[in-house]
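Before relying on records like the one below, remember that each one covers exactly one chain. Contacts with other chains, cofactors or solvent are not represented anywhere in the record.
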Amino acid sequence: MKDFADIPSLMAEIGTRAKAAAAELAFASAERKHAALISAAEHVWNSRETIIAANARDLEFGREKGLSDAMMDRLALDESRIQSIVDGLRAVAEQADPVGEVLADWTQPTGLHIQRVRTPLGVVGVIYESRPNVTADAGALCLKAGNAVILRGGSESFHSSSAIHAAMVAGLRDANLPEDAIQLVPTRDRAAVSEMLTMVDTIDVIVPRGGKGLVGLVQREARVPVFAHLEGIVHIYIDKDADPETVLKVVLNAKTRRTGICGAAECLLIHEDVATTIGQGVVRALMDAGVTVHADVALQTLEGVIRATDADWGKEYLDMEIAARVVPDLDAAMAHIRTYGSNHTDCILTEDAAAAARFMRELDSAILMHNASTQFADGGEFGMGAEIGIATGKMHARGPVGAAQLTSFKYLVRGQGTVRA
């Protein structure tokens, strides 16, 4: 790895090149962007042995750093996961191009014809940890939306991200698009992150994708606007009218399918009327599956549970652990979520349509679910092909951030020599 001593100069150069690329991408045809993504997908697949070898170096680095099993799972790539990256690139390629889409169209009494149309944001900076697939997802989505992107991956995924980035650049080259449209910061030096956060002249928005520490740092220090991707403190409320079979199936999938993703369930709230039936049954099933359950006093009679402390409410485990609490009713469940949640994803399991409607109307999380695994909190599962993150704030983008969410808009106003009285 090359040693970059002058990080400010390096980042200034990357920013300047990205801004120039963004100016060209803003009017690149949908066909050329499609061609670049299809070609990138082919290069990723054809480079899979190189990518897996690079990933092996990253996994060794992760083991030396003492990463948890869940974090190692986020980092690991195999042929199946590379196929998923390829599928994601192809899915984004086949989506309708958002740039130029007419969002509204009207004529004023003055005779002015006005349209609001989608336009690229410009240059997007993405700062992420561990998951090397973000290199492809973010690159593809930004390109589709006509944006240049500066990618700063985690130190753990440095070699994997570099190998994937090389394939993305090859796709740009094949489609005769500027190679600077997708740039990867070529150093692990954390000073590069600090520089990105202040590059107001060349970066239009920062997207942090990682743990609470990273997102907190970005929100504290950024002078560039930020799409916040906060931790996924995901709750599942088991209502008194929940179906036992649905509860068992959904909760086990939501917690154990992949524990290291932000849509993994982290806290169970169980209505007191079903605490000793459905509640105890699902807690036992979780423990049988190897999940450590941190439970409140009402569930202490179950052998094997660990008594929860205050620190367990509002905790993102990202591992085979979950908190569980008995609540008197729906109102108490929603109050708990408002207090300890992160406005990411929350779910109700019930056959009572009125209770589900209240839950979804009165809570303000970016994603609210009814009788579905929270593992579906993913842009790909929403039909976006991929996502750059789950935005938990309320400004501009919210929920899965796909290509359309990486655009702004402008007004096109047409007259016929029209003047204002």
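The longest helix spans residues 7-25.
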